[in-house]
Design goal:
Elements (H helix, E strand, L loop, with lengths): L2 H17 L5 E5 L4 H15 L3 E7 L13 E5 L9 H14 L4 H31 L2 H10 L3 E4 L5 H9 L3 E5 L1 E2 L2 E2 L1 H4 L20 H33 L6 H5 L4 E4 L15 E3 L13 H8 L6 E5 L9 H11 L5 E5 L12 E4 L4 H5 L4 E6 L3 H10 L3 E3 L6 H10 L3 E3 L7 H13 L1 H15 L5 H15 L14 H4 L2 H36 L1
Parallel strand pairs: 1-2, 1-4, 2-3, 4-5, 5-8, 8-9, 10-11, 10-13, 11-12, 13-14, 14-15
Antiparallel strand pairs: 6-7
GO cellular component, one term: membrane
Subcellular location: Membrane
Organism: Triplophysa rosa (Cave loach)
């Protein structure tokens, strides 16, 4: 094979991979908000491969549009809904800032209460959604008649999981979170000795006290799953599924788990054959910016630009915090592009441009960008890694605290607490990340590692989705361990059985000794 043939071999393989799966029929059950943002990336890719896509959405959805050029929709009208839109996230943000000011013990207790309440709200919403579907006989028949090849879902909340199992469809996950924690917990061994729990702010090198804390958090997650999540779906499972069906078994039945994780970012941990890693799949080379935005960046000269965004769910911080940030921005020589909603801060400097939306990936990939001020959402973190841009993190909610801690451990980010943020502290941190090249060097190294792959994360994800369609599932990749009782899985019954022999031997030895002693004592008394 000549050099040119060797160069074309990967491309030929990829083209073969694309062509071998003629247009499939994909049913998609996504989550809203930022989860939908990254699900769309996969749907666009599937659309370019000629697949027909149908998206199940709620009539109350605040991100998923009913009409699209790449998919058709099935819109569900749950009879009763609770508002899980921007207002809820604003309330959660206020609560999070209040928790940051509490002592560690009180904060932990209050966090567990809040997590329980949040889980109830979101899971009850998922229950109403799937109930509305399963109780609509005409809709169920329509879905059966559509002859879908698979169901692609984000299983953070299990409505899509329940629908796939009800329709007996092969199932692929676009996943990071499941039930009360990281999705790995449900599918792969996750020893709490070195696998940090969700929201623990622990890394994979824990001392004894940290391992104790992590183990307690592990127990709390099991209790949340057993006492809060499972009971919510019990009646529905009894009504629509065979007797004895439990939610966890249905969740574990997915053929492929497309994990939004890259071990350049995540801590190493055990895995399984049907787990495929696609962290950063939404990242791509930067595209040209709109003319006005490009002109603003070019006006920064040698100093460059700072980008700030708080993601899709949080529009703005409290007024006083916005004022602190704006004042600090006004004192640096760089230009600033800030994704912002609401009235401009009174302390806003001439170097700062406020926009309600901007092309974040394209800005991060611009040669003038020097730093990313971020809340620590997964999408933004991976885009920063992809483009090698150091991060100044202001974590606000959910997994963001763990995300930025992982970057901090790798020397690619600095983390500040919003609840106690001052202008002096924020300004000092800005200068530190901008002027200390160690942050940039660390992030560029992560970028090199992240990009050094035989196939892009998005192409990898697409291959495995089409693999499941071609083979009508992938049960051969599922470990039988998920079907075992917990005591059998951990070999506790075997250990108990093996321990029984020395226990019996010891008991027999003691009994024989007592018997011999008794006979000797009786003989001695007779002689006396």
């Amino acid at each position: 094979m000549d050099v040119r043939s060797k160069q074309l071999a990967p491309l030929t393989c990829l083209l073969f991979m694309v062509c071998c799966c003629h247009g499939g029929n994909v049913l998609v059950f996504p989550e809203d908000g930022s989860h939908w943002v990254n699900m769309q990336v996969i749907l666009r890719k599937l659309h370019t491969h000629g697949h027909s896509i149908t998206v199940v959405r709620s009539s109350k959805s605040w991100y998923i549009q009913e009409s699209s050029s790449i998919y058709s929709t099935i819109t569900i009208n749950p009879m009763k809904t609770e508002d899980v839109g921007p207002d809820l996230f604003k309330m959660l943000l206020e609560r999070s800032l209040a928790l940051q000011k509490m002592s560690p013990l009180i904060r932990f207790i209050e966090q567990q209460k809040d997590i329980a309440n949040i889980l109830k709200v979101f899971h009850n919403g998922a229950l109403r959604m799937i109930s509305a579907i399963l109780e609509d006989a005409a809709l169920v028949e329509q879905m059966h008649d559509a002859k879908f090849d698979l169901l692609l879902t984000d299983p953070a909340f299990p409505a899509g999981v329940l629908l796939a199992n009800f329709l007996h469809l092969p199932m692929v996950y676009n996943v990071r979170w499941l039930n009360a924690g990281d999705a790995h917990m449900a599918i792969a061994p996750s020893p709490p000795s070195h696998v940090p729990m969700y929201n623990s702010l622990l890394d994979d090198q824990m001392n004894f006290l940290q391992r104790t804390e992590n183990f307690l958090r592990y127990l709390f997650s099991l209790l949340q799953e057993l006492c809060i999540i499972m009971p919510i779906y019990r009646e529905l499972l009894e009504r629509h599924f065979p007797p004895g069906t439990d939610l966890l078994s249905l969740q574990q039945s997915a053929d492929i788990w497309l994990m939004r994780v890259d071990f350049v970012f995540e801590f190493p941990r055990p895995t399984m054959p049907n787990v495929v890693y696609m962290g950063g799949f939404q990242c791509r080379p930067a595209q040209p910016l709109p003319v006005e935005l490009e002109d603003f960046l070019q006006s920064s000269g040698e100093h460059g630009v700072v980008i700030m965004s708080l993601g899709a769910t949080v529009g703005a911080l409290p007024t006083e915090v916005n004022g602190v940030i704006a004042s600090a921005f006004a004192k640096i020589p760089q230009k600033v592009v800030w994704r912002y909603h609401g009235d401009p801060p009174s302390s806003l400097g001439n170097n700062t441009l406020l926009l309600q939306w901007f092309p974040q990936n394209d800005l991060l990939g611009h040669p003038k960008t020097r730093m990313f001020v971020s809340h620590g959402g997964t999408n933004g973190i991976y885009e920063a890694i992809y483009h090698g841009v150091p991060v100044l993190a202001l974590p606000l909610l959910f997994d963001q605290f763990d995300n930025v801690m992982r970057l901090q451990v790798r020397g690619a980010a600095r983390v500040l607490q919003v609840a106690t943020l001052t202008e002096v502290e924020f300004l000092e941190a800005l200068k530190d990340v901008l002027e200390n090249h160690a942050y940039q060097n660390s992030m560029q190294k992560l970028s090199e590692l992240h990009r050094d792959l035989p196939l892009s994360p998005l192409d990898t994800a697409t291959f495995w989705i089409e693999y499941v369609m071609r083979h009508k599932g992938a049960p051969h990749l599922r470990s039988k361990g998920i079907n075992m009782a917990w005591y059998s899985y951990h070999s506790l019954d075997v250990i108990a059985f093996l321990l029984l022999f020395p226990v019996i031997a010891l008991w027999v030895s003691i009994y024989v000794c007592k018997l011999l002693c008794c006979r000797k004592s009786i003989k001695k008394r007779k002689m006396d």
